[in-house]
Amino acid sequence: TGIDELLDAILLQSEVLELKAIRNGMASGAVIESFLDKGRGPVATVLVREGTLNKGDIVLCGFEYGRVRAMRDELGREVASAGPSIPVEILGLSGVPAAGDEATVVRD
């Protein structure tokens, strides 16, 4: 099917181009999907691009904002932080952001 060859080509290109993600600093990323859960409230799945997203951070997602009350990984486990290329569900936003919105951590 060519999947293995594609993955090998991507790994080779990333080594040649020396692609590195920035792990330090305030996180930014993109909202992949979001929905309103009956028991948990607004839930947004965010893919972190750079920095580290921590529980307790104040996040701005499009027109919505809030403090990250809880984060879950793709397996539904609670996590305290998420680095680059890690998708997480975040809870604690004021409303449901739109898919594609930029998610940015802001200072208090």
Automatic annotation (TrEMBL):
Domain of life: Bacteria
KW Nucleotide-binding (keyword) present: yes
CDD domains registered for this protein in UniProt: IF2_mtIF2_II (cd03702)
Ranges for domain Elongation factor G-like: 27-105
GO molecular function: GTP binding; translation initiation factor activity
One GO CC term on file: cytosol
Annotated keywords: GTP-binding, Nucleotide-binding
SUPFAM superfamilies: Translation proteins
Cleaved signal peptide residues: none
Name of the protein: Initiation translation factor 2
Gene: infB
